[in-house]
Write a structure and sequence with these properties.
The protein has about 160 residues and is of the alpha+beta class. The chain has six helices and five strands; from the N terminus they run H-H-E-E-E-H-H-H-H-E-E.
Length: about 160
């Protein structure tokens, strides 16, 4: 009986340790790596004169961009939040329902959320973080459509997004 109880305690402890380690690992990964790993061919990151992240699952794209070569992680965090809360692509539903996606999302919100925002729901926090990063780093979002070889871009106003 003592051996059984001892083994049960060890097993539970190991499971808790593995769970905590996995959650910490997810939080430590950067948004760019997670997005590229999950979306592979549908997502490109360009870091020339302008930093650009494009999510293009079909002949249309969500494009997030910022001038200069500021921190790529900031634009990637912005893109992660935007794709989760702001993008209307049905292709994103599986990703949005993934537990690892949600764990990283919460780590991004914790990273940028001020103390005054602590009691807000996640949608409001995301809205404020997106607006803050956009104004602080000059991040823009546009919807791009390719039609018969021509590119048509429409700027997206973050204030118009329904959170």
């Amino acid at each position: 009986m003592k051996t059984y109880l001892f083994m049960l305690i060890i097993t539970v402890s190991m499971l808790q340790l593995f769970s905590c380690t996995t959650n910490k690992r997810i939080e430590q990964l950067n948004s760019a790596a997670l997005l590229q790993n999950y979306f592979q061919d549908s997502l490109t990151i360009k870091t020339d004169d302008k930093m650009i992240i494009e999510y293009c699952p079909d002949n249309t794209c969500d494009v997030m961009a910022m001038d200069g070569r500021n921190n790529e992680n900031i634009l990637a965090d912005f893109a992660y939040l935007y794709l989760f809360f702001g993008s209307n692509y049905s292709y994103l539903l599986e990703w949005k329902n993934n537990e690892d996606t949600k764990q990283h999302l919460f780590s991004i919100l914790r990273k940028y959320t001020s103390v005054e925002w602590a009691k807000l729901d996640d949608n409001k926090k995301a809205q404020r973080v997106l607006n803050q990063l956009s104004s602080q780093y000059g991040i823009t979002v546009s919807f791009v459509r390719y039609d018969e070889g021509a590119k048509y871009a429409v700027p997206i106003n973050l204030e118009d997004i329904k959170f």
